[in-house]
UniProtKB/TrEMBL annotation:
Name of the protein this chain belongs to: glutathione transferase
UniProt similarity note: Belongs to the GST superfamily. Theta family.
Subcellular location: Cytoplasm
Domain GST N-terminal: 1-82
Stored InterPro entries: Glutathione-S-Trfase_C-like (IPR010987), Glutathione-S-Trfase_C_sf (IPR036282), Glutathione_S-Trfase (IPR040079), Glutathione_S-Trfase_N (IPR004045), GST_C (IPR004046), GST_C_Theta (IPR040077), GST_N_Theta (IPR040075), GST_Theta (IPR051369)
Reaction it catalyzes: RX + glutathione = an S-substituted glutathione + a halide anion + H(+)
Presence of keyword Transferase: yes
Species annotation: Petromyzon marinus (Sea lamprey)
Molecular-function GO terms, alphabetical: glutathione transferase activity
Quaternary structure annotation from Swiss-Prot or TrEMBL: Homodimer.
Lineage: Eukaryota, Metazoa, Chordata, Craniata, Vertebrata
Major location category of this protein: cytoplasm
Keyword Cytoplasm: yes
Amino acid sequence: MGLEVYVDLMSQPCRALVIFLKKNNIPFVQKTVELAKGQNYSEEFLAVNSLAKVPAILDDGFALAECVAILRYLLARYSSLVPDHWYPADVQQRARVDEYLSWQHTSVRPHAAKVFWLEVLIPIYTREPVEPEKVKEALEDLENTLVAMQRKFLKDQPFLCGQEISVADILALCELMQPVACGHDPLAPHPLLVAWRARTEEVLGADLLAEVNACIMGAHDKLKNYLHPQGEGTLAVPPAIKYLQK
């Protein structure tokens, strides 16, 4: 059976996982699960992940969900293919990567994603623009997070957790693509973070990033065309969007 990877490349963690796999030449079969079409609730996918979330993998019959858990599994499973710097064997260096992986769930991830939800998803689902003040507040929250990320993790290092790139850098780069897809560059006021992004992109490769990020660029038009193919009507608003509208 081999390694099957279930992803929707509109999702930041899914893109991070695919980038990691391709960069390290780990053989896998990519299975697309389109969240906008509700394919994550199909019988086939629920058999892989009953939580109905992507990414998920099926590795010779072994099912696993959650991006960070999947990355750690793959790093151990394919250790002969993966250079040490992605998740160092040194206990303190690895702990630093783990520290970022734990922190980003309540910082970079929600704050970068919220900008995308407010400027792309909510207007598409509701056909109403979000109040500019809410977008401004979301960008301010993201700015505070970036200041913390630079102060705590990047410091004066080339990469977030040390002298070499790690899985932390891939995850951060993918999360920060969400506001870029909305026309924002939140890193612009931070020269050290801009330089970090350039180094990370150079290591990962322009062609690979362009391939995996293609779906997120121009996401507004793509989602709008799918959700409203006739240009009319409204859709049931998902719970997450109702929460962000408050």
